[in-house]
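Lecture notes, structural biology module. Today: joint structure prediction for complexes of two components.
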Amino acid sequence: MTSKENHKTETVLEIKNVTKRFGDLLAVDNVNIEISKGEIFSLLGPSGCGKTTLLRVVAGFEPPDQGDIILGGEKVNHLPPNKRECNIVFQQHALFPHMTVFDNIAFGLVERKVSKNEIRKLVNEAIDFVNLTGMEKRYPSELSGGEQQRVALSRSLILKPKILLLDEPLAALDRKLRKEMQTELKRIQREVGITFMNVTHDQKEALSMSDKIAVMKDGAVIQMGSPRDIYEAPGSQFVASFIGATNIFKGKVAAATDNDRYELKTDSEQTVFMPKKNGIDPKNITGFSIHPELITVSRDPADNKELSQDQYTILKGTVKESFYQGEFSEVTIEIDGGNRDLTVHLNRGTHYDSSFEVGAKVTVYWDWKHNNVLEAR
Amino acid sequence: MKKNNILLKIIIGLVYFVLWVPVLVVVIFSFNDSKFGVVWKKFTFKWYRTLLDNSALQDSLTRSLIVSVTVVTFSCIIGTLGAYGFYKLKFRFKKMLRIAMLLPIVLPGVVMGGALLVYFQRIAHVPLGYVSIILAQLSWAAPLALFIILGRMQRIDFSWEEAAQDLGASKVRTFFRITLPLLIPAIGASALVVFPWSFDDFVITYFVSGVGNATLPIYIFSQLRFGSTPTINCIGTILMSISISLLLLNMALENKNKRF
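The predicted structure, tokenised, for the full assembly:
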């Protein structure tokens, strides 16, 4: 085998044209996803967007109305959940309350008729691996949330599934534990090398954990890409606003455009440049988004600096509100003439001595190349 | 404050006194060597001995035990399956069925007994005896078991069943490894409720038992017509100790299953 073949990414799970209806409700709408081996893939979306349904279709609890689930190169549509080589970590863990930690973890091995000695060896290894040594004889009700989570994880991992499906794995934990478990999940995934498909509505969790994210809305995947792509270049207003605090300007492309940029007329009659993006019909453009941390604020007049329209998007406004957050300050600025607000994050490093009192007249500007084109979708 | 406490204790003491004295009297006088209960003569086991010699009483006791055990067994099976269906299936008239099943429990025994007698004799032609008694008791015992088990079932998270299947268990294996063990306390509890009720049932059983099929309560009642004998105190004492042990067993089971 050449090393080239080794590096070729192998598709573990392929979701092909999958559609699922519940009565009149279109829960999953023609979804196509490919997940490569060793990847952490996240389905991200608000509740009711169909992400959990899609997970249940993959696991075999719901049959798809159309399309195929291909697991490890094999079509598994007809297989019941107990015959599929994928396992779920349920949202509320679903640990068996009448079984000890040991028996919970051993459950799947017992079903596979593994010998008793082998089970003992494997389960003890698994317990050590997730740092639960000494808790074998406890019942789920005697464990903390984080410990329950780890039992649920190792109960699935011990079966060495081709892909591990995580249904909002961290939602049941408190904030501090969540961060801890996130690190733990990444460690486990790295060491075991199992592919993860993670369902979440928490965009921060998705951004920090995933190799690839699919954003879902109304049953359909509306954008798929790396966390960086999703955060920095959301393609539509929905993704932009769902992924995190951002400023969205609506507008239309004005007639003539230069070679490398569009000229956009915003709803509030400002003219703004935007970088061109391949494969987008200017007619489909509905506006742009700009993240609060990319914006610079200066008192009028603009720090004695000559700001060129060719380089910056420049707006004038009045400070309306200022919230101190510690690592940054969030300032809300009312843009002149537009009757709209702009949120700006002032980083301590770059704005260390600037505090803006409410009512101050300011100029805000940013490199127009940061303007992110939004399409109707 | 302290005075209140004392008053409270006195009242509680009185309540217990009133509740327990008749019971204690029965127990004490079952050991009294006097035909006419009110005077204590001396300690004896002779009434228990007459109990052993009384074949009519033993017959009725056997009959009662057979009836109760059968009723408990069937009501637990019907109750478990029924509750499972009630919880998992969606069907039309579910609410109505629920109310319909409550009826045999809430209807007065006289009404149920009379109706069942007519039904067994005129319509279904069920011979009066074991079959009719057991069927009549099941008409309220099975719904009772069902509701007790259903109450418990509503605390079972059905993602447990899904998790078991996800980990490789078939549906049958899931039922026996997950669902049934989780329901055992509820099934046990319903058995512990149904057994004494069935053993104790007088009104409905009286209607449908026919001639010569007296269960224990019916036998005791028929004996009372000849005046109370200390033998009845013995029966009372024995039944009481059985009931109390069942109650304690129930409590022990409850405590053991506090895990979820």
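Point to remember: Chain B is about 80% helix and 0% strand.
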